[in-house]
Amino acid sequence: MKLGKRLQTLHDVVTQDYQHIWDCCCDHGQLGAQFLHSSQAHIHFVDVVPALIAKVKQDLTCFFPEAETRYSLYTLDVAKLPLTQYLGRQLVIIAGVGGDLTATLMTSLCNDLRDEVDFLLCPVHHHYSLRQTLQSLPLKVVHESLVEENRRIYEVLYLTSGKTGTAITPLGEAIWQQGALSKRYLEKTLDHYARVAKGKPEAQAILSAYQHLTL
Ligand SMILES: C[S@@+](CC[C@H](N)C(=O)[O-])C[C@H]1O[C@@H](n2cnc3c(N)ncnc32)[C@H](O)[C@@H]1O
To answer: Which Pfam family, an example, fits this chain (predicted)?
Structure first.
């Protein structure tokens, strides 16, 4: 199975071993299926739409007939993930949904964290407000980067509730050290917030924060 560049990047950024990997908002379940293939972890596929989970179940039965005991399927709101029911290292992946929804889900999940949990996020839009929410949660940055697919640039945020890592910043740090890609991302971001600020003056503060970045 060949993943697109965004999902392949999310897969490849994970170099640690986990006992549990949660492919949240999984839709087609491609990322979780890749981890089922490449890791020893138990893979949890979660989506709120029953028909999507039924399709993932059908695909896994067909393509991973030997791995029946290595995955679980849930038709569930990710805000209600039963993380505390599992022991061992856990990675929660939330990709391909809006930054606002990602913020809501992360706030809910971090409300009841008992053990150390890692998170891999790849939101669509609203990175600034998402980062503001993430700053208010007990999380640190393990790694952050940009990935481009179909002329769209995404932020990849690998976070931990553990002790090692750096502080989350509102604009990001390492994402501005990827040369030409960072430059293009900054241009796109400035264009976006300049447009938003025309109809929503409160976006001016966000625009000026990005304008102060020097690459
Ligand atoms: C565009 S797909 C993302 C698929 C995949 N994660 C990716 O990055 O390509 C978004 C999925 O999120 C699911 N979703 C939206 N809100 C959700 C929630 N609160 N809990 C679980 N799934 C949700 C939708 O049903 C949809 O299948």
So the answer is: Methyltransf_18
